[in-house]
Design goal:
Largest sheet: 5 strands, mixed
CATH superfamily: Metallo-dependent phosphatases
Shape: globular
Helix content: 10-25%
CATH topology: Purple Acid Phosphatase, chain A, domain 2
CATH architecture: 4-Layer Sandwich
Strand order of the largest sheet: 1-2-15-16-17
Strand content: 15-25%
Low-confidence stretches: 1-46
CATH class: Alpha Beta
Structural class: alpha+beta
Number of helices: 6
Distance between the termini: 15 Å
Length: about 425
């Protein structure tokens, strides 16, 4: 969903402005992309926007275009938008993520990943992690360093391919001013391997009475021809930030089984209890998204296609290693669930594929996070997770009823305004 909000009351309990639905366009493929442009006007107007506590209300929607339900072909790895276009240790797959209202995560990948029967992990310390940034083109008053890591996706079964990633870098830059353009480069200056200059714009501060210009919400994106339409459509609409509500690459459904794409996995690999994933798909997805994510912060939460199990109960390695999220900043200390503020909105990202019971760490964290929300600072409270609690899709009907029974009452208690999910299409 892309939300265009110019102004918003600072008091959640006494909103005095006109109904805001100016335009609503519904766009879907294998991806769920909701586009709504909302103009909120205050200052002495007699009408107001009701809260969710006064609902339910009749939804305003546009019917799905049936032509979009015909499926879509996967993009091949040699597609121009998926190919690697840098050499040696130059950065690629550059992505932004919010840290705090005055800081930003910048992540990227260097070097070459390996896939095959035998792979040798690279030493992540061989390439440095630097970001130069400033408010003028070519002038970088700030410099920060960060961490570099790799991950492995291993399948110790005959015929299956293993994978080891390139070097994944994460740097947090801080001391940023709100609603300001920053120019930056990332890479390793000692190797003369810095990126080209890129630019992003910071968001309004909480309590300022301002909001992100547009918020894009995407789920179940993948890498298909429909995905290209979705991202092109999104770039055209110039969002201020992105919520990615799970199921990013579908690497677990592309060229698995030793790269052969065998139609009968259990027949061809009877001794392999785990279905492999084609990890280069993640690298292709990072390149595919870079024109957008290198200038617009993207906040992710895991879906079922990010589980990617390995032996010894290892899972989610791609998701956990590739993305920076404000887990420590929000007190969750988990990349599976966290929260952040953007202007007058407090966002809560919940994990449906980790423990959500009332006795678990996520529930305890969620309760504490909700208790700290100040509606005079962030009048809007938005939650997102991958699988919807309510849907009529037969394959996923009541699939996460247990999560709903554990958490729904808490979200009602604190008056969550909007929930975004993916999973069904």
């Amino acid at each position: 969903m892309v939300v265009d909000e110019e102004e918003h009351s600072a008091n959640h309990k006494s909103r005095n402005y006109m109904p805001f639905m100016e335009k609503y366009e519904l766009f879907t493929s294998s991806t769920i992309l909701l586009l709504a442009v909302m103009n909120m006007v205050i200052a002495g107007l007699s009408q107001r926007i009701p809260t969710t506590l006064e609902g339910p209300f009749k939804p305003t929607t546009r019917s799905f275009d049936p032509s979009l339900r015909r499926g879509s072909d996967d993009l091949p790895m040699n597609h121009p938008r998926l190919r690697k276009n840098v050499t040696s240790n130059f950065p690629e797959q550059i992505a932004l993520a919010l840290s705090t209202p005055t800081s930003m995560w910048i992540s990227w990948v260097t070097g070459d990943a390996q896939i095959g029967l035998n792979v040798t992990p690279v030493d992540p310390s061989t390439v440095g992690s630097e970001v130069w940034y400033g408010k003028e083109r070519g002038k970088y008053s700030g410099k920060q360093t960060g961490v570099s890591v790799i991950y492995n996706q291993l399948y110790p079964f005959e015929g299956l391919w293993n994978y080891t990633s390139g070097i994944i870098h994460h740097v947090k830059i801080d001391g940023l001013e709100p609603e300001t353009k920053y120019y930056y480069k990332c890479g390793d200056s000692s190797l003369k391997a810095m990126s080209e200059e890129l630019v992003f714009e910071t968001l309004p501060l909480p309590g300022s009475g301002k909001y992100p210009g547009r918020i894009a919400v995407i789920g179940d994106l993948g890498l298909t021809s429909n995905s290209t339409t979705t991202i092109d459509h999104l770039i055209k609409n110039d969002p201020s930030m992105i919520l990615m509500v799970g199921d990013l690459t579908y690497a677990n459904q592309y060229l698995t089984t030793g790269g052969k794409g065998a139609s009968c996995y259990s027949c061809q690999f009877p001794d392999a209890p785990i279905r492999e994933t084609y990890q280069p798909r993640w690298d292709g997805w990072g390149r595919f998204m870079e024109p957008l994510t290198s200038r617009v912060p993207m906040m992710v939460v895991e879906g079922n296609h990010e589980i990617e199990p390995q032996v010894a109960n290892v899972s989610f390695q791609s998701y956990l290693t590739r993305f920076s999220v404000p887990s420590n900043e929000s007190g969750s200390n988990s990349n599976f669930y966290y929260s952040f503020d953007s202007g007058g909105v407090h966002f809560i990202m919940l994990g449906a594929y980790v423990d959500y019971n009332k006795t678990g760490a996520q529930y305890v964290w969620l309760q504490k996070d909700l208790q700290k929300v100040d509606r005079s600072v962030t009048p809007w409270l938005v939650a997102a997770w991958h699988p919807p609690w309510y849907n009529s899709y037969s394959s996923h009907y009541q699939e996460f009823e247990c999560m709903r029974l554990e958490m729904e009452a808490l979200l009602y208690e604190y008056g969550v305004d909007i929930v975004f999910s993916g999973h069904v299409s």
